[in-house]
């Protein structure tokens, strides 16, 4: 590295689930380990499970999706943000930029997502473009983006060409090329940097008995996971694994009333508890996993090489989880149940099919956190060294 370690400002805004925060925390871990000085600007509600160790964290007045349809944004009190809220939040964001004067600015998702927040992101990008010296500007995006209308795709290309020096694609080109979900990827090919998947380091299982032979049921943060868990509880006795222990890991965003409803359905052999930090270890030892198809969960499944049933989230035309799940199902790693077909009977049938799977380890790059730091430093040094 030439000169002093660069300063990096990382804008992160999660709207519904917690997957974005987990991936962001792992990225920060990789950047800090590489000697980068990181400040994280958080736009969503705090997620205590994930810490940005080694980084400074600035919390903006929080915003989240109103509901699973992503039809609008609301603040922590459930109110739609008015013009004054937007002005104050934008000014706070710009003030953080001025105070940090970053060498590298990384914005999570935008312009492939988070368009609802362009009222603060465009002023941030404009300010970065006129800063002296101008920081390296990068987008951090997962392997698959939501399908958009042609005019929205063209808008994203235009924004990348105008403002961004790099697009960190957190995936493996050989497994899922970015163009499979973003049809104009060839127009920004010179900016695409494939980092590999951002996952936790593969850990040795602390105990061979931890969760051994269990059915592990999870749904990320839980905001849209109730039906999956309810169907698993109701369908359990119709599966060939009815006599196994079924462990349900409940995310922090599942409402208390729905947790109570799950508890009432539980019987002997069922454990219902909060998400656990040793989830990867439980996954490595389980007989079968039942989950949604989010980025982090699917990479955890691949790392553990676990048999699985996957119910991808498809709310309001969401396609990202379905595309990734279908690709893995075609490789013999999971059985997919479509959200529209989910019930106790279909889930039980999928469990009985999935237990016969013989998943082989796939050669997929999962060193995304370390590689993201390496690629950013290389690009920064080539333009600012």
TrEMBL record:
Pfam families: Glyco_tran_28_C
Lineage top rank: taxon: Bacteria
InterPro entries according to UniProt: Glyco_trans_28_C
Gene Ontology molecular function: any one: transferase activity
Keyword flag Repressor: no
Gene3D superfamilies assigned to the protein according to its UniProt record, in alphabetical order: Glycogen Phosphorylase B
Domain Glycosyl transferase family 28 C-terminal residue range list: 222-355
Alphabetical UniProt keywords: Transferase
Signal peptide location: none
The protein's name: Glycosyl transferase
């Amino acid at each position: 590295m030439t000169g002093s370690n660069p300063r990096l400002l990382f804008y992160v805004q999660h709207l519904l689930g917690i997957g974005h925060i987990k991936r962001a925390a792992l990225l920060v871990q990789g950047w800090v380990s590489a000697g980068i000085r990181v400040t994280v600007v958080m736009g969503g509600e705090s997620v205590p499970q994930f810490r940005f160790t080694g980084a400074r964290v600035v919390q903006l007045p929080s915003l989240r999706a109103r509901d699973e349809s992503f039809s609008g944004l609301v603040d922590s009190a459930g109110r739609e943000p008015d013009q004054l809220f937007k002005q104050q939040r934008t000014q706070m964001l710009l003030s953080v930029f001025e105070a940090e004067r970053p060498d590298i600015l990384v914005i999570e998702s935008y312009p492939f997502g988070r368009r609802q927040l362009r009222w603060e992101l465009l002023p941030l990008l404009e300010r970065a473009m006129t800063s002296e010296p101008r920081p390296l500007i990068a987008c951090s995006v997962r392997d698959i983006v939501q399908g958009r209308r042609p005019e929205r795709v063209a808008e994203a290309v235009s924004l990348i060409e105008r403002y961004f020096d790099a697009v960190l694609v957190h995936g493996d080109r050989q497994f899922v090329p970015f163009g499979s979900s973003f049809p104009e990827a060839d127009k920004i090919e010179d900016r695409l940097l494939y980092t590999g998947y951002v996952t936790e380091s593969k850990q040795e299982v602390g105990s061979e008995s931890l969760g051994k032979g269990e059915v592990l049921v999870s749904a990320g943060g839980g905001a849209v996971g109730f039906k999956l868990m309810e169907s698993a509880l109701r369908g359990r006795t119709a599966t060939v694994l009815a006599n196994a222990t079924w462990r349900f890991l409940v995310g922090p965003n599942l409402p208390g009333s729905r947790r109570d409803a799950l508890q009432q359905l539980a019987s002997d052999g069922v454990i219902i508890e909060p998400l656990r930090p040793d989830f990867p270890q439980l996954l490595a030892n389980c007989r079968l996993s039942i989950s949604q198809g989010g980025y982090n969960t699917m990479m955890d499944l691949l790392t553990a090489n676990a048999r699985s049933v996957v119910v991808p989230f498809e709310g309001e035309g969401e396609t990202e989880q379905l595309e990734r799940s279908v690709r893995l199902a075609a490789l013999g790693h999971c059985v997919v149940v479509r959200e529209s077909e989910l019930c106790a009977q279909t889930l039980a049938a999928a469990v009985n099919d999935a237990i016969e799977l013989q998943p082989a380890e796939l050669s997929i790059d999962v060193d995304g956190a370390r590689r993201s730091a390496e690629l950013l430093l290389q690009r920064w040094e080539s333009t600012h060294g």
